[in-house]
Amino acid sequence: MIIDFLYSLIIGWIILFIFWLIIIGFIWLRKPPNSILTKQITIRSISFFIIVLLIMLVFLLADSF
What we know:
mainly alpha
């Protein structure tokens, strides 16, 4: 049962990550004058998504459940 939950959590996280990349790409494309989106914030947010995804994958691949 926990495996199904982890699969659905990973799929949801990937969908959220794809939409997040689209939003960040759109903001970078438009470059609004009052935007506080810097390269450092972009890298941190993408790194956060990837790190959480990797943690979830480790839990899914671990056979300790």
